[in-house]
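I'll show a record.
***
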Amino acid sequence: MIEAGDGVEALAALTGINIVTLSVADTQQFGVLRLIVRDWQRAAEVLKPAGLAVALTDVLAIEVPDRPGGLVELLAVFEQVGLNVEYMYALTARLGNRAVMVFRFDKLDAAVTALCSAGINPVSPITLYEHREEG
């Protein structure tokens, strides 16, 4: 969590760490900076000494049809199999003709199983990071 005015310090602490994507949300008391970085261990090591609360969470990258209605179709599958999305990130990354989005599910293992059963395969971290470094 980030208190007002600490955002610059948080990002300065991450100098040299490639941020794949981020999201910022705020309340009246504090802000939440969520980051996806390849070197998450190093990011945690530099943010904690800067006085920031750090929590590591597992997320899942999924290919989404990059056309009108593509996200709606994917969300319909989530609903059919009973998945709860806590939050998500949109990325600028593309794999072929598909966009990539990152989702945080309340039950990650159940999400992986349900999505694979529905023919939706998660994007591996290696594929995602290598593709981002090439583009």
